[in-house]
Write a structure and sequence with these properties.
Shape: globular
Order of helices and strands: HHHEHHEEH
Distance between the termini: 19 Å
Strand content: 5-15%
Oligomer: single chain
Number of helices: 6
Helix content: 55-70%
Radius of gyration: 14 Å
Number of strands: 3
Low-confidence stretches: 1-5
Strand order of the largest sheet: 1-3-2
């Protein structure tokens, strides 16, 4: 039986969301203004990984792994500014996911 590519994508998303801290990170990123100030406005460039790490109370490597899982699922995008990586929610993908859940599951 051939696997539906949409079901593969959904499985990747659900795997990324299977960790409560990753779910909280997505919730936090919904309002980037709730993070500490940074040089570039978080609403424009995303939230610096160091702020996500501090709020999640995890090591830098764990925070990086969490964000990599969310990014590979398409739920966040990243932007490198100098030595720092900033993350934003991918609202387009999240909206499509919500619609896909509503119509297909």
């Amino acid at each position: 039986m051939e696997e539906n590519p949409d079901s593969t994508g959904l499985a990747l998303v659900f795997k990324a969301l299977s960790n409560p801290t990753r779910v909280r990170i997505l919730q936090w990123l919904k309002d980037p203004g709730d993070f500490p100030p940074q040089l570039e406005p978080a609403e424009e460039v995303g939230v610096c990984l160091k702020h996500i790490q501090a709020r999640a109370e995890v090591s830098q490597s764990t925070a990086s792994q969490y964000m990599a899982a969310l990014q590979s699922a398409g739920l966040v995008t990243s932007r490198r500014i100098g030595q720092w990586t900033h993350y934003q929610r991918n609202e387009e993908v999240i909206a499509r996911l919500a619609e896909q859940i509503r119509t297909e599951l």
